[in-house]
Amino acid sequence: MGTTILKTILIYFFTLVFSLSFSIILILLPTCIHHGAIYIPGAYDTLYLSRYSPYDTIIVEVDCMEGMSPDPRSLATLQQQIEQYSNKKVVIYTNEEIEISEVPDTIIGDELFQTIDEIQEAHRDYHTGWLFGNITVYIMYLDFEWYSETDFLTTQQEIDDSLTYSIGLTCAADSIIIFKEATMTNNMETSVLLHEMGHIWGLDHSDETSNVMNSLFIFPGNSTIIEYPNPYDFPMNFSNEDEEHLLMSHESYRIIPIIFSNSQIHQ
Ligand SMILES: [Zn+2]
């Protein structure tokens, strides 16, 4: 009699321990994967694009500093392109609520991530659900000078040279910064939005001047934006190769983030 009760207690005990552990793993595993992946541009590629992804709707939240609202035509093109490649519903929300005082004039190296965290903490309304719900893209229209690398720089000249003249940055799996002041035309703003979206979808740079993933968008050192290309004639399309990549992602069964990468920021 005594041993039967003991056995029953033991069975209940182990069932309880097993269920608890299983539940904890079920909750912790996606948390860990997303916690690692969220900082990696491209990590959510198939989550945005795959037809098997658990997300039906992509929410694009755009938060801007005062006076830096996006051009509605650029956002409309972005929306159309996201819909085309993901075949999902795309909803865009825009707010102009980031105060100038919230963004430092100068940001050095990895300080960028702290600034972005603070802005998101204060302003971001929509987040990606870990298993279901909506998947989100967060776009910030900001203005600051970013010095990309200063760890090994000593002279003032070297520091000045590391000032990055960038029009856009992809700084996480779901986050983009647009430097509105540097976008001289509507055409240029659209092109940069599509370029950064390409990074979110895992695309790399291309040398083809007609490809929106052209890396000549980056203007290091003292070169100016006007030199290349003509600000009224920026590329608007993905190359055939990149388009194939996006279509393959649409058919992909991989609907978990990739958690390894060599780069935290794409320009
Ligand atoms: Zn780029």
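^ zinc ion complex. The beta strands are 57-65, 89-98, 106-108, 135-142, 145-147, 163-165, 168-170, 175-179, 219-220. The helical segments are 2-37, 45-49, 72-86, 111-123, 156-161, 186-200, 240-251.
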